[in-house]
Design goal:
Layout: H1 3-20, E1 23-32, E2 42-47, E3 50-55, E4 61-68, E5 70-77, E6 84-90, E7 94-96, E8 99-101, H2 108-121, E9 127-131, H3 142-147, E10 152-156, E11 164-168, E12 176-180, E13 183-184, E14 202-209, E15 223-229, E16 236-244, E17 248-258, E18 264-275, E19 280-281, E20 287-288, E21 297-298, E22 301-302, E23 308-322, E24 325-340, E25 355-373, E26 376-392, E27 407-408, E28 411-412, E29 428-445, E30 448-464, H4 470-473, E31 478-494, E32 499-521, E33 526-549, E34 554-565, H5 569-573, E35 589-605, E36 608-622, E37 625-630, E38 636-641, E39 645-658, E40 662-675, E41 679-680, E42 686-687, E43 700-711, E44 719-729, E45 732-733, E46 746-747, E47 750-760, E48 766-773, E49 792-800
Length: about 800
Amino acid sequence: MSNFKIFPVFLFLAFSIIGFSQNGSLYGKVKYNSNEPAVSTFIVLNGNDISKETNSNINGSYSFKDIPYGTYTIAFYSLNDIPKTVTVDLALKNQEVNITLEVSALDEVFVRSKTVQQKIEEKGFAVNVIETKEAAIQSIQVNELLDQSAGVRVRQSGGLGSHAHYNLNGMTGNSVKVFIDGVPIRNFGPSFSLNSIPPSLIKRIEVYKGVVPPHLSDDAMGGAINVVLNDITKNELKASISAGSFGTYRTDINGGYRNNKNGFTARGSAFVNYADNDYEVWGDQVAVALSAGTPDVYIRAKRFHDRYRSQGGKAEFGYTNVSWADKFLAGVLLSNMDQQIQTGATMEIVYGNRFTEQHTNMYSLEYAKKEVIKNLDISAFASYSRLNRKTIDTIATQYSWLGYPTSYYNDPDVWATGAEAGDPTLQKDIDETINARTNVAYHINDNNTIQLNHLLNTFTRDSDDPMLPAAENALKEERNYLKSILTLSFENSAFDEKLRTSVFGKSYYMDRTSKLRTRTSNTSNSTIIIEENNITSNDFGFGGSISYSISPKLTVFGSAEKAIRLPEANEVFGNVAANLNASVNLKPEHSNNYNLGFTYDNLKLKEHTFGITANLFIRDTEDLIMQFPTGSNEEFFENSNIGKIYTEGVDFTLNYNYKERLFFSANSSFFNARDYNVTYDVNGNPITPSYERLANTPYFTMNYNLKFNTQNFIQKGSTLSTYTNLLYVHDFFRGSSVLGGSGKTVIPSQVSFDAGFAYTFPKNKISLSFDVKNIFNNQLFDNYALQKPGRGFYGKLSFTIL
């Protein structure tokens, strides 16, 4: 028989075999009804004498490959959800089966936050995730929660409402960016800050140290704090009220409504804060002359001009979890603040009349949709905010720490300048900010994603001061600032999700223009002129992260970045209300950042569970921007580039729990930030750097937290939680011979010990807490020896209305 005749027979047999033994693949995605991916769902396939098991990956994706055509049952099991089983007829080469799991109401928040936390920690960045569910019922500020986290030091200049900035692994000030739901917090105004937002409005806080994930988009060179607010998509209404020492009162309410038929969603929150901040201060900056010509006497005195009031409300309306959008919300935020000003940059100058008033209106529009088209996710946010600020300082009376005007022969002393902080002022500032953020992600497949992120921020300020001479006030000032950051990134997972890598490149563009009044002097007179300044910069940075799960419990991670940080508008243009002078010639910061660490979690020894995370880091920084007191009395602040600073350090966290009742955590951070600037002698010869420590920067901190939960205490279904927290800050230099500074040379070591309890009544509707802070009434300092509150007692009542 010829080959030609044999071939049709062979072909027929081949197709017959294929027809009787065709194999295909089942694949799809698993998500919760909240639209979150169901990570690590256990999936079992049965049928045709075949049984297979798998788990969904970080995106909720799963697949069963090379299985014969036929009918199968697939069962889906995830922590605290309602198990689901479906029947599938496999008749195609590749068949998609997508599943939505229903989460029980009691466990929904826990499941969602847990899966999101896993996704964050598996990206390879040096990150702490702070859960706020339990802290929400305590009398505690968000800044206190952050201060208990490894590698974080919150630098606050006083009590409630005082200015705060954040130190992450040696990087500080505006090098550390703060976000609310991924939006830079500067757009929300000063009255909507981490100092004023109640923990009950927050779902979690993500603290990125050093290298920051691309989706945050901003120029966060030293790290980032991203506050994720509660994403209310069901009908609820909660409120709390608290009161405590130093005239402190706080109340908040938040709630939401969602129509399950059409997806219409409305949610809102509001808060009111008040504090007299009349706590006691003492030390070598609290001195008075009891009579004319006598030496200063050191005393213990109460702050007497430091009242803080703020109110704010935020409302959003739109649609959530509908076919055309995961989120489409229009929002409005209104906030107010008025604040008395007690001191200048240090405690050596005391004010008795100076104060500021501020209010902010912000309007926003947000859209997000996964799978707009196949494998393409889009999210966008745009906002416009208008801040009106007024600084009032028109009385020249001098005050002392005794709380009343200084006087000689019963006549009050007055400042020769005509006001307490310089010339009399009623300056009004109008700051307008436009912010637009866009994120686009394309999932090439389950293991590879490419993202494009863009942030555009514009700022303008108009100022007017009727206290200025008419001719001077007629010389109008201008301040304009534009920042654009474009990020392209690629993410990959391999080896069954064990290896995760991310690489990215960033383009930074800045254009700022100012026309500011300045005084020129000569031997005969002085003249006021307008000085113009225009600076643009165009920089490029890049970086990446990697993590590898050696086992389900042990993960190693690393990240590196060539980072740029553009000066902020307030740093460049100043802020009269904050005693901050303009620094129009500030240059961008540049830093090479490196992190290397590991996490060993969920190590069980019978009923004991341990976990440890450690991170080594290096920051090699050029043109670091720092804020320093200036003037003979150190009354004002001014920002400066201080050149080359090299930092290396380590932080670690240890967690332990026993039977999920006794919880202990300890963390410590140490870094060595040194001055590497080369100076020159009178002949132009280079001088070896001093290698001195960075001034006014705490470099060694420890924090210990112990908590014990008791169920069914007094009442069945109730929970009693008792807790203590100990914070230690090692002494550090206030100034140095290289970086300047005067007065108090060393900020002494500090120990703060807090304790309290929270009692949650049955049905979880009402909680009552009581806290004692700084029990030993120790002297606590932060920025340039500005003293913080002593021992205080605080109570809080939280309740669910709906």
